[in-house]
Automatic annotation (TrEMBL), chain A:
GO cellular component, one term: ATP-binding cassette (ABC) transporter complex
GO molecular function, one term: transmembrane transporter activity
Name of this chain's protein: Amino acid ABC transporter permease
Keyword Transmembrane helix part of the UniProt annotation: yes
Organism annotation: Bradyrhizobium australiense
Transmembrane feature ranges: 20-45, 57-80, 147-170, 190-209
GO biological process: amino acid transport
Domain ABC transmembrane type-1 residues, every copy: 21-209
Pfam family, one: BPD_transp_1
InterPro entries in alphabetical order: AA_ABC_transptr_permease_3TM, ArtM/GltK/GlnP/TcyL/YhdX-like, MetI-like, MetI-like_sf
From TrEMBL, chain B:
Native organism: Bradyrhizobium australiense
An MF annotation (GO) of this entry: ATP binding
PANTHER family from the UniProt entry: AMINO ACID IMPORT ATP-BINDING PROTEIN (PTHR43166), GLUTAMATE_ASPARTATE IMPORT ATP-BINDING PROTEIN GLTL (PTHR43166:SF9)
One family name in Pfam for this protein: ABC_tran
Biological function: Involved in beta-(1-->2)glucan export. Transmembrane domains (TMD) form a pore in the inner membrane and the ATP-binding domain (NBD) is responsible for energy generation.
SUPFAM superfamilies: P-loop containing nucleoside triphosphate hydrolases (SSF52540)
Listed name of the protein: Amino acid ABC transporter ATP-binding protein
Cited InterPro entries: AAA+_ATPase (IPR003593), ABC_ATPase_HisP-typ (IPR030679), ABC_transporter-like_ATP-bd (IPR003439), ABC_transporter-like_CS (IPR017871), MetN_ABC_transporter-like (IPR050086), P-loop_NTPase (IPR027417)
SMART domains: AAA
Amino acid sequence: MSYKLQFAELLPYWNVLLYGLAFTIVLTVVSTVAGIAVGTAGAAARTFGPGWLGRVVAVYVELIRNTPFIVQLFFIFFGLPALGLKLSETTAAFLAMVINLGAYSTEIIRAGIEAVPKGHIEAGLSLAMSKWEVLRHVVLNQAFRKIYPALSSQIIIVMLGSAVVSQISAEDLTYAANFVASRNFRNFEVYLLAALAYLLLALLTRSLLRALGRVIFKAR
Amino acid sequence: MSLVSIRDVRKSFGTNEVLKGVSLDIAKGDVVAIIGRSGSGKSTLLRCINGLETYQSGSIVADGIEVAGAATNLRELRRHVGMVFQQFNLFPHLTAAENVMLAPTVVNKVSKAEARATAAEVLAKVGLSEKMDAYPSELSGGQQQRVAIARSLAMRPKVLLCDEITSALDPELVNEVLRVVEQLAREGMTLILVTHEMRFARDVGTKLVFMHHGKVHEEGVPKEVFAAPRTPELQQFVGQVG
Ligand SMILES: Nc1ncnc2c1ncn2[C@@H]1O[C@H](COP(=O)(O)OP(=O)(O)O)[C@@H](O)[C@H]1O
Ligand SMILES: [Mg+2]
């Protein structure tokens, strides 16, 4: 164990690494927002929508939850062109992330909706609200409050899992690390730095989500 | 003309017939107390009146609106027919005032300010002016139930359905809720109450309905019916609870 760390050799590539970090952050934020929007719609369809729509959503959820993310990504990027749908690396990466988080959050949010007492829904209906108004004003707030920790964990999982998009050359943090390592051969330093960056990002995201949760669901 | 007219209503859950031809006429200002054993169909009957349950045959007309399956204008019906539940069902993420304001703002599209004024008025009526900004978790059961009553009143219903609204309360909290209901009755509100409070049914009710096995088994003026129940089933029931 006499390896000498040479972090200085990463310096010439700081802009590549920074770009990768920024890509990963933007990818995570966008897919979190869009994925939760998809998840909310999916969960609403499964619990409050017509039966056929609920079944369509169920198939989507099971399809995504029972296949590897990397295969979903490859299917979108390498598979879809066969149907004439050719996406850029970046678009494919974002799309795959949203579809993936959308499926997982559908399940999480659905569990939250189903945990809301039926009596609250009936009380809302008895006040002449439509079921969509009840969903929006009575159910969702309570549901999100209940599943917020689970959803937060899923966001972190997806953020870390996003490293896979480097496999289609979307220029995220892992892609940047691969790139630098292939140039200066400082694999140890590069991947140590990348690992630290992911670790920091995960811890930061966790505390950010916790703070956000405290604001949205202010303490009673 | 009756405000609520129920004609030969039959309702089954699967093969279990729960309402076996119920007919009732309720006039404006009536205070109808529905009593009967658990499982006799009391809740189901109330829930049919505001469309929370559908029924298979017969007819229900409430304030001129026919309650008839998919074609019913449920929104219009429920603006006229309020309901209060045994379990209060306050929305836990909203304060007392916000609970009361929700339906007026969402359904009737009144302004926040106007809704808040209405909330202040109805919460004062149930004696909870100081609790406007309290969350349900900060209120006692009796207070929560009074907020639930105020929440229904904010929609200015013509009829209020109350399903055992004191049954989930500690005994010492029952009276504060009953007093509110009694005041509503005095003001002329039409009330249909499922209750186990026999004294209340006798003293405040204008009409007593005894349900047994999915039918109206006996009905009449509460004082007379309690003084001389005609059927052995009601005699036995009154003997048990009274
Ligand atoms: N949603 C339901 N599904 C199936 N059976 C039900 C449902 N609701 C009520 N019942 C049945 O209908 C009967 C009458 O119930 P209910 O109207 O609640 O009686 P009560 O309010 O007089 O106690 C009971 O046998 C009950 O089990
Ligand atoms: Mg009941």
